[in-house]
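Question: Send over one sample?
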Amino acid sequence: MTTPQISEIEQEQLIEKLEIFKIHGRDKRGRKILRIIGKFFPARFLSLDVLNKYLEEKIFPRLGRKPFAVLYVHTGVQRSENFPGISALRAIYDAIPVNVRDNLQEVYFLHPGLQSRLFLATCGRFLFSGGLYGKLRYISRVDYLWEHVRRNEVEMPEFVYDHDDDLEFRPMMDYGQESDHARVYAGAAVDSSVSSFSMRCIS
């Protein structure tokens, strides 16, 4: 994560505006779901301190003391735009209170892609303590997600369904042998949102 060019208040507003983190719905076991949209994560505009503060004040208290699950939507994530970096991921994970980590029962990882699978397979056990790697469940299609999550309780952005359609017609994308750049990234809503927001803040 780079040094942000907007203030802490503006960073918090950006997190809220993009709804990167949202607690809603439950999985088939009745556990609350923390939905995280990776494509909406503006890594270039956020500091670790602001992000951890937001999670500590706005998200973790709402999870309560009961078991919960995370639904991480990896669709459309680009290293240069939405990925905070390995050291930042580790710092974010280490900042999560122990009781919250203990209550995390499952991580549904939607549209992981080949690179993500390889990275987590080689580094996941060393990068994350507390058995997080063992809680990962890869979900390659939205339809498969509904086998674990209550369908009518979780909202998904339209680009997630579009990517699913692409995978059906171009299955080699699952294995990293065909690019989905033209369809998924063209005119991405988060890019315009972040750009317009940052320009308003800086001007």
Remarks:
- Confidence is low (pLDDT under 50) at residues 175-203.
